[in-house]
Amino acid sequence: MLGWFPGHMNKARRQIKEVLPEIDVVIEVLDARLPYSSANPMLAELTRHKPVLKILSRADLADPERTAEWVAFSMPKRTCAPWLLPPPIPVS
Prior knowledge:
- By secondary structure, the protein is an alpha/beta fold.
- The protein has a domain at about 25-85: 3-Layer(aba) Sandwich (Rossmann fold), CATH 3.40.50.300.
- It has helices at about 5-20, 35-40, 40-45, 65-75, and strands at about 25-30, 50-55, 85.
- It has a three-stranded parallel β-sheet.
- The longest helix has 13 residues, at about 5-20.
- Keywords: GTP-binding, Nucleotide-binding.
């Protein structure tokens, strides 16, 4: 087992634990191209008793079939309520 844990991650975990009693719902933004890999397992563990809204960003760059598979897999387990964000509006 590694004895290394970055200080900023430990600080973030401590801060989340402190404010968690005041939070009604957790909003987690995931990259739609790789939602499993962009999720933070520490956050999932800390918030396991809270409702979670998972927002999929960059959905315009993701494979629509894979995204649909992920949503279909996640929804029956009630692990998330996915939202797909539209692509950003270009600034001219």
